[in-house]
Amino acid sequence: MSTEEATSHPTDETNDNEEEALKNENEPQPTSDNEDGTPPKANRVQTYSQVEMGINDDGGGKTTTVDNDTVNNEDLTFCEAIKDVILSFWPLGLVAFGGPTAHVAILHERFVERKKWLDDERFLELLAVGQGLPGPTSTQMVISCGAYRGGILGGLLSFLFWNLPSFIILTLSGLGVSEFVGSETPDW
User: Fold this and answer.
1) Strand locations in 42-95 (E)
2) C-alpha dihedral over 115, 137, 147, 114, to 10 degrees?
3) In this predicted model, what pLDDT tens digit does every residue of 134-156 receive, in sequence order?
């Protein structure tokens, strides 16, 4: 009997199988919910506030699973898309006070969670591009969301209706102050 035969035991084969099974347990197993056996189209992404603050998702944070089929990309006519942009941004211009972080949160809640114009991944891409460009990120996000829905005209209209209420309020306030102070300029 050789030394190889003496050291080879039937338990060695079962140990190899157990090690193989443990390796396979630790690997994520794809789920095949689709009829053709492919995994479902879903992306697990961090929320925009976690990415903004540099927080890594350790499983305890809020994450969003977005199914690409749930994004509201139905075929709209151009006029319907423009009407949707106007009706969506006019009220936001009236109530969106605060800094850029508040604006981004409002846009995320409105256009990702409620209206489903965008998914989280696309919203984060737009946010990253907006933060990389000079200028106000929240205004760039407004234009991006409007342009995503209604093209270039949708982007311009979203900017207009986002800023129009504050423009009207500030213009009327300036006219009121000029009436109150009069034509004399203050010495200071």
Assistant:
1) 42-46, 63-67
2) 0
3) 999 999 999 999 999 999 999 99
Q: Rounded to two decimals, what is the model's pTM?
A: 0.57
Give the integer Cα–Cα distance in Å for 79 and 135: 30
The dihedral built from the CA positions of residue 133, 134, 138 and 141, taken in this order, carries a sign that is negative
Q: Tell me: the pLDDT tens digits for 8-33?
A: 555 555 555 566 655 555 555 555 55
Q: Give the SS3 label for residue 43.
A: strand
Beta bridge partners of 66: 43
- Amino acid identity for residue 166 in this structure: S
What value does the mean pLDDT take over residues 96-106?
A: 87
Q: Look up tokens 């309020």; give the residue.
A: 169
